[in-house]
Amino acid sequence: MNDTTGTTTGTPTATDTTVFDVVVIGAGIVGSAVARKLASYELSVALLDARDDVGDGTSKANTAILHTGFDATPGTLESRLVREGYHLLSDYAERTGIPVERTGAVLVAWTDEELGALPGLREKAERNGYDRTEIIDSAEVYRQLPHLGEGVLGGLTVPDESIVCTWTTNLALATDAVGRGVTLLLNRAVRSAEDLGGTTVLHTSSGDVNTRWVVNAAGLGADVVDRLFGHDRFTVTPRRGELVVYDKLARPLVSKIILPVPSSRGKGVLISPTVYGNVLLGPTAEDLVDRTDTGTSEKGLEFLMAKGERLMPDLLREEVTATYAGLRAASDHPDYLIEADPGRRYVLVGGIRSTGLTAGIAIAEYVADLARDAGLALVSREDLPEPPRMPNLGEAYPRPYQDAARIAADPAYGKVVCFCERVTAGEIRDAFRSPIPPVGLDGLRRRTRAMNGRCQGFYCGAEIGGLLERRGEIRDGGDESTGGHPRVPLEARR
Description:
disordered N terminus; 30% helix; 494 residues
């Protein structure tokens, strides 16, 4: 084991001659979970990413659903790991403060074909080990979801489907990994891999990284990295999913996740509440060539508006807060592709679809076992620190601006900086002081919700941008350095 220093910047203290025991490529949810798990052993571990922040790829833009795995293909590795991951992430969320709401879900049938598919979906759920689904008639669907459009024929309830904060999930896992001694190497796009016999040199955009083992959790780039190790076993196609985010005033319309019934025409569009108090409509599913194209499109918006008018006309009368798009790593392989190459001391974690949010911690457990079987010596550590307690971004739990005792102890939590999301100067300061601080406005948004509300930064953007420019001063200074507006009682703003 080598003595290396954990770092949260793109310029680590580890030298070019440092040889890590394991380097994990990809600091999304899956890669961060794998690095965290491997750091529970007597190993030197580095977590490497091409971007300047963790969770800045596929992991940051999805429907943020914690899945039971009821609709996975029975007998697949994905089915097993999603089922296990549901419980592991639920427990981890309680320990770390990741916001989760147990809303439940209803698959809504609008056609005879969809209605006829419900018994088969219930049977599939039972084969996946989930036996709490129930087929309900149209009257019960409308009782539970009175704002649905006309024409519902029936539904299938999934009471344990939940919504979760994907941003906090990724950041918690990465922060936990760093707390366990993982070296975080950002701005390190892998260009090539050179096998020196016993060690591998990863030639990156910011210098070489030496390691004995490599875990490839590169998401959209996993197939490209896999080919650097001499394999050609799958191809990733970037699948763009566009979503519409509705204002918090729309939340009373949607108390549960409203799922489409998969049919011969595909999986369809869902409506879901979010832990931030908004409502999502989407996603689309468009296969692209460009692995960086996360722009929204007029065609996608028109498609979602037409779907929304059918599903819930009342929702379309509400204000739209934002639109965004994420890229999913669609694969030509029908299941998760997690395999070890003992000769190259290499593990592929590929073909991880959107269910990777739920399955991430279970995937990490599986990877550790696979690597052990392939020859990586794993000796458990006895000195693991407690996991981090993350800032709460969810509306279902008290936030700093609501906590009088916290404000009395630290007035920065009473200085509102972003009024749409009620983000305080204290939270901004805490983000700058965190083990993995943001380097840009998007990263700050994912850590605090600042600029994530109705005005999308129109009113607060300049002030928050100024705070970001002064982040070093704020990190090292006192409460007064954070500025912010005086606290305004909620009653005065209603």
